[in-house]
Amino acid sequence: MNYSMLFIGLFLVALGFLVRRYPILISGYNTMSAKEKENVDIKGLSAFMCRCLVVMGVALSGSYYFCVWMQWWTIVAYVPVFVPLIFVVYALVKAQKYDHNRKNNNQKQRGT
């Protein structure tokens, strides 16, 4: 039996708990200056990212094996692509509420 989706799901769950314990693992937060980090609700952000990663890992493994069990072979091929894509877009949009740094339209974005 193919255990790769189970392994990836468990990896995402473990990564979620690591992000909760070590928030410096959050991409974007670790590149901020000390002044910008002061304006981020890191406890809320790390808890949110933990929940997102845990739910994504469970949903990825669960939906994959559910589709295999139901013998929906055409859907099985799309589960590893669309489940993480949906969760990543959701996390990117919702995680912005924890960043309280002022954004100016004339200010250049970081990294550009």
TrEMBL record:
Transmembrane feature ranges: 6-24, 45-66, 72-93
Keyword Transmembrane helix: yes
Source domain of life: Bacteria
Keywords: Membrane, Transmembrane, Transmembrane helix
UniProt xrefs under Pfam families: DUF3784 (PF12650)
Protein name as annotated: DUF3784 domain-containing protein
